[in-house]
Amino acid sequence: MKTSLLMAATLALLAGCTWVKLEEGGGRVRVAYDGRVDGCEKAGDIGVSVKSKVSVYERNSLKVKDELETLARNEAASLPADTVVAQGEPREGKQSFTAYRCGTRSTAIRREAAPAPAPKEEAQTYPVR
Where is the composition biased (Basic and acidic residues) (predicted)? Predict the structure, then answer.
């Protein structure tokens, strides 16, 4: 009983760890969640993978997705590219990305008009600026 409890505690601690670190070059690469890469030049395709399970324990899907994006950003910096776009959702710890060279276009902040007020019965969200 003590052994299984100790093993469960160890797995829980390991599941919370970030195993992938953002490198200096990867810090200059953005993830285009909206897929807007108009006017950018395709630099290549990237395939990345991480462990989605530790033994029989499923890792947090958000943590896995974050690590996949970090790996893609690190890899894109070596192409060289400054923007990556995910090609679908992660599956079993694997994900594909397309890398682009956008230059200054990748850092331009688009100012959009504020959305119309939501009816009282609906929730409303705003992007963080």
Answer: 109-123
- pLDDT above 90 as % of the chain: 53
Sheet containing 30-31: give its strands across: 30-31, 83-86, 94-101, 41-49
User: What's the CA gap between 106 and 39, in Å, rounded?
Assistant: 10
pTM here is 0.67
Q: End-to-end CA distance of the chain, in Å?
A: 50
Q: Is residue 118 part of a domain?
A: no
Q: What is the mean pLDDT of the chain?
A: 82
What is the mean pLDDT of the segment spanning 43-48? Answer: 96
Q: What are phi and psi of 114, to 5 degrees?
A: -65, 140
When divided into structural domains, the chain yields a total of 1
Give a yes or no: residue 87 inside a domain: yes
Residues in the chain: 129
